[in-house]
Amino acid sequence: MEETTKPQATTERPASGEAAPIIRFRGVHKSFGDKVILDGLDLDVPEGQTLVIMGPSGTGKSVTLRHVIGLMQPDQGQVEVWGKDVNQIARKELVALRKRIGYLFQDGALINWLNVGDNVALPLRENSKLDEAEIREKVEHKLELVHLPGIWDRMPGELSGGMRKRVGLARALITDAELILYDEPNAGLDPEMSGSINQLIAEIADTLGITSVVVTHLQSCVRVVADRVVLLEKGRLVVDLPRDEFLASKHPRVRSFLGDDPD
Ligand SMILES: Nc1ncnc2c1ncn2[C@@H]1O[C@H](COP(=O)(O)OP(=O)(O)O)[C@@H](O)[C@H]1O
Ligand SMILES: [Mg+2]
């Protein structure tokens, strides 16, 4: 008989040939007061993968994303990004690491008194030494990428929810992020807009080869964007499957979560 052993928390690299995961959570615990949110979470995201995180509301999906960029620290355990423990590195290194990560907040988080172009340009103005012409060219290119060419002068208040979300995405991409975190990119959008955001997420992952983590509760989003789906419940992953297996899974939590039949 084989002994059953729990996976060891380790920071060892995988055997040669395999790429180290871009994101690695090991035994991450996080509580707020006496409320345990993450309860020993283990999670690896390999390069180039689009991982979808599903789970009930208030289960710690956004908290998990915040740990990736060091906006929250675990009470126990490690969070490594590109092989670096985000809670051990120097502040300067963390700032450099964050520049490689795009974060699409739920509401797009645009600044209302800046026009679209200036919103998208903001990370470049803050963090680069590019001149205005170079900034202009980069911003216009990203706006084209999200299928919103030529809207530099529009104000956020004049845009639909879907357009705001796409501008937020252009801004998340402006520093040529290698990893993008999407927190409920479909929230508040009608089905048509929601579908076009899904297409865009998939397109960006494919054409730019970006590693992506997407928090969503929509099956339509899973179908279009996911390579792999995890279900987070009570602070741990209760399901971790490739997309098609997830969608067809008879696991009771998957079924109740998708709220339908596999067929
Ligand atoms: N900064 C915080 N302080 C206290 N409680 C928090 C904080 N951030 C999140 N929480 C709590 O942690 C739980 C998980 O939150 P969250 O990750 O936002 O859930 P979701 O899975 O819906 O994204 C919620 O109960 C939330 O109230
Ligand atoms: Mg959330």
UniProtKB/TrEMBL annotation:
Gene name as annotated: mlaF
Residues of the ABC transporter domain: 23-259
PANTHER family: INTERMEMBRANE PHOSPHOLIPID TRANSPORT SYSTEM ATP-BINDING PROTEIN MLAF, PROTEIN TRIGALACTOSYLDIACYLGLYCEROL 3, CHLOROPLASTIC
Keywords, in A-Z order: ATP-binding, Hydrolase, Nucleotide-binding, Transport
GO function terms (MF aspect): ATP binding; ATP hydrolysis activity
Lineage, opening ranks: Bacteria, Pseudomonadati, Planctomycetota, Planctomycetia, Planctomycetia incertae sedis
Keyword ATP-binding carried by entry: yes
EC number: 3.6.3.-
InterPro entries: AAA+_ATPase, ABC_transporter-like_ATP-bd, ABC_transporter-like_CS, P-loop_NTPase
SUPFAM superfamilies linked to this entry: P-loop containing nucleoside triphosphate hydrolases (SSF52540)
Any one Pfam family match given in the protein's UniProt record, by short name: ABC_tran
Name the record gives this protein: Putative phospholipid import ATP-binding protein MlaF
